[in-house]
Structures are given as C-alpha cells and as structure tokens.
Amino acid sequence: MTQTLTIRRPDDWHLHLRDGAMLQAVLPETARHFGRAIIMPNLVPPVVTGADASAYRDRILAALPDTMQFEPLMTLYLTENTDPADVAAAHASGLIKAVKLYPAGATTNSSSGVANFDKVRGVLETMAEIGLPLCVHGEVTDAEIDIFDREAVFIDRILDPLRRATPGLRVVMEHITTANGVDYVKSNAADLGATITTHHLIINRNHILVGGIKPHYYCLPVAKREEHRLALRAAATSGDARFFLGTDSAPHTDPNKESACGCAGCFTATNTMSLLAHVFDEDGALDQLEAFASLNGPAFYGLPVNQGTLSLTRTEHPVHVPEKIETGDGPVTVFDPGFPVHWHVTA
Ligand SMILES: NC(=O)N[C@@H](CC(=O)O)C(=O)O
Ligand SMILES: [Zn+2]
Ligand SMILES: [Zn+2]
C-alpha cells in the first residue's frame, strides 16, 4: 500500500559537518532534506570565538552546492578562557544560536572543553541574561564511573547543580540516551529541552556487541539497554515540545572507525528522514513526526519554522541507501539500521 506524509521542512538541531574535503562531501547529504542545522564546533582546533564561527560559516556556505538552500546555525565551543563579551557580541549580531559545553575529555575533539566549571560561571550568567541556549554533551568523564552510567551521573553531579546556580539559563541536553535523561527533562520547566538522535531510537547496546563488535554503531554517549531505547522512542513520538531531532550525524572515515581504537560517531545524514518515518510509523505516531523533526526545535530556539515541505512515501520496495559515501578523506559508512526501510523521501 502506498502512503504519503507531508511535513514542514525539517531541521537538524545537532550536526557535525567537519571541514575541508569532509565538509564538501557530507554537507549535501544534510542540505538535501534539512533547512537548517545547529553546527557543532568540535573542529581541530575548535570554533571558540565569534571570528572562528564567522569564518567557519563562510566555509560551509562556500561548500554548499548552488542548487541547495541551507542555513548553518553556528555555535561556539565553550572553554575555560571563553570571553563573555565575545559570546554576547556573536549572539547580538545573529551569528551564533548556542554555545556548546563539552566536559574535557568526554568525546571526539573535547580536550579543550571544561574541567573546572567555576571558570565558566561568568559566561553562563551572561548567556542566561541574553537568552542564549547552552547545548550540553552530558557525560561525566571520571575514570571510575562506568561508561553506561556517565549520562545519569552527569545529570546529578553536574547538570542539575549548574542549572540551579544559573537561574534562567536555557539548556539543551544533547543526544540523550537514557530514561534518566527523559525523566529529567520532563520533570523540569520549558527552559530545558533535549535532542534525540535517529540511531538511539533504533539501536541498543546489544546491536553494538552481540555477534561481533560493530564499529559503525559505536558513538558517544554509547547506546544503552533496551529499556532506555524504549524511553527515548516514547519521548520522541509523544509530541512533547521539549524533545526534538538532533541527528548527531558524525562522519569518520572507515579506517578511523574500523580500527583497534575506533572513533565514536554514527553517520546518519543520508537516510535519517526515511529511518524516522519508519520508527514513527512502527509506533503508530506518524502524526507526531512533524513536531519532532520540524516544529519543536524552532519553538525552543525561538526561530520561525521553515517555509517549504518534505514529502515521504511508503512503497512496497525498500529504499536503496548507498553503503558508503566517498569523501576526499576516504569512505564514510552510512548508518545501516539492519532492516529494510520502505519510506522514501519523494519531494
Ligand atoms: N557523537 C559521537 O560519537 N561523536 C561526535 C562527538 C559528540 O557529539 O559527542 C563526533 O564529533 O564525532
Ligand atoms: Zn556529544
Ligand atoms: Zn555530536
């Protein structure tokens, strides 16, 4: 049976575009379907100042094919030396839409992140005053904390005290992976939101480890138990405006993933919208896909929804997705859900 769904053009509220040859190759994969994306600043070296963000934005727009329309929403990488005045100026000019907090050492390219939270208090207070959201990679890095507990411990030890110390600060918990994250968002007011990735709606930790290790399913925060995946699905498909799509599409070349010390990150830009339609269809929630992918994010960030629409059609034959995309840095494997997907992006 053929079935069609038309939604407002979606946005991606957490995206890694990288730079140079990788940027050139992955940008069209997102711009084909998405109107805007929050661009993660974890380049090497990171995007720290307004001047860095302006130059990176120019490189993104230069890499955008003429036939495509896409607006990069820039962010700054919070360091212990970040200048509140520079942040305020970059926000006032419209250049940046958020600041990103990486606990030092938590994930890919996070060595310049925050270790001593007292050092960023001034920036956070400025952000609360001007209404600029803080996007948070929510994992503690303490060696003695089990990697599967790092998100839950972060909420208790870092995030909740930080929010209490900075009233009015708007926070997005990025790529939540646990029921603890879902519950924490739900138990708070509208100044707290969360992004959920496509892959965390599909895989649990068994997918990574059972029957042989699957490097292309390894990302941070690492996928958790099935009960957590189900909590994420319930949140994403609920229509609750505090939950919205952030794919965390994070390209790494195959040699860097398929190695003795493989990089963290799943590349989902190519097939995210097909996968989401599949997931929402499976849960009988197709009518909530637009809220999750196209409406809730702009509402949180105080931006208008996109003009234009995206249509998806369910057909008898499954979608063909390339196994890899070629980049100037080497091949990048596209996330494979491990089941056939029948929802095609058709317009
Ligand atoms: N999610 C990941 O596993 N990796 C991201 C970093 C991040 O979002 O934590 C990356 O930049 O590769
Ligand atoms: Zn992260
Ligand atoms: Zn990310």
Automatic annotation (TrEMBL):
The active site is at D248. Substrate binds at H16, L17, R18, N42, H137, L220, H252, A264. The keyword Coiled coil does not apply. The modification N6-carboxylysine is found at K100. It catalyses: (S)-dihydroorotate + H2O = N-carbamoyl-L-aspartate + H(+). Pathway: Pyrimidine metabolism; UMP biosynthesis via de novo pathway; (S)-dihydroorotate from bicarbonate: step 3/3. Transmembrane segments: none annotated. PROSITE patterns: DIHYDROOROTASE_1, DIHYDROOROTASE_2. It is an enzyme of class 3 (hydrolase). It comes from the Bacteria. One of its GO terms (molecular function) is dihydroorotase activity. Its cofactor is Zn(2+). Zn(2+) 2 binds at K100, H137, H175. Keywords: Hydrolase, Metal-binding, Pyrimidine biosynthesis, Zinc. Residues 12-310 form the Amidohydrolase-related domain. Zn(2+) 1 binds at H14, H16, K100, D248. Its EC number is 3.5.2.3. HAMAP family: PyrC_classII. NCBIfam families: pyrC_dimer (TIGR00856). Catalyzes the reversible cyclization of carbamoyl aspartate to dihydroorotate. Belongs to the metallo-dependent hydrolases superfamily. DHOase family. Class II DHOase subfamily. Homodimer. This is Dihydroorotase. It comes from Aliisedimentitalea scapharcae. The lineage of its organism: Bacteria, Pseudomonadati, Pseudomonadota, Alphaproteobacteria, Rhodobacterales.
